[in-house]
Amino acid sequence: MGVFPIDVVNCGIDFLVFSGYKWAQAGYGVGGLYLAPRFVNPTSFPIAGWWSVRDPEAVVNDRLDLKETAAALEVGCPHFAGIFALGAALRLFEEIGKLRIEERIHELTDYLHHRLERERFNIASPLKREQQSGITIVEMHNAPDIVKRLAEKNIIVSARGKGLRVSVHIFNNFDDIDRLIIGLRELTSMTRANTE
What we know:
Elements: E1 15-19, E2 31-35, H1 80-96, H2 98-118, E3 135-139, H3 143-151, E4 158-160, E5 163-167, H4 174-195
Antiparallel strand pairs: 1-2, 3-5, 4-5
């Protein structure tokens, strides 16, 4: 969510959960839940709170008039800061457009893969377009150390699995990727020099 369009109906998705951080760009403490309508049965919800009813402001305590949507699961006080941030992020994604975001992620990923291959770095992620995401794993033996050294240059990546996880998003550009490649080239050449 936040990178590629997700069509819950055409994909036959019954339940979808996403967090506000990372791809959604809305920070911590908020997330989203989709339930297919056939699973929304307010009479079987295990709990209810003041926000679960149709008119929470009425504060009616002698009957339970639950919403007939998944919004009935919002049982407590909402995390307003997170909701506002998520709302702003979703509006931004809508303004940019789902297809433009997807195209930009592929454009940046293609460029990243091209630069990595040219520098002879091994890519552990799928190379086929239909299997790609905005995440690329670059094989690296000393990934935790490289992550720390790149962070000193204000280049943020993570150590994962076989190496470095590089994630691109719509706010990235080709210069960011070029800086990463230069940083990797410098650090790996220093490592090679120290081991010879």
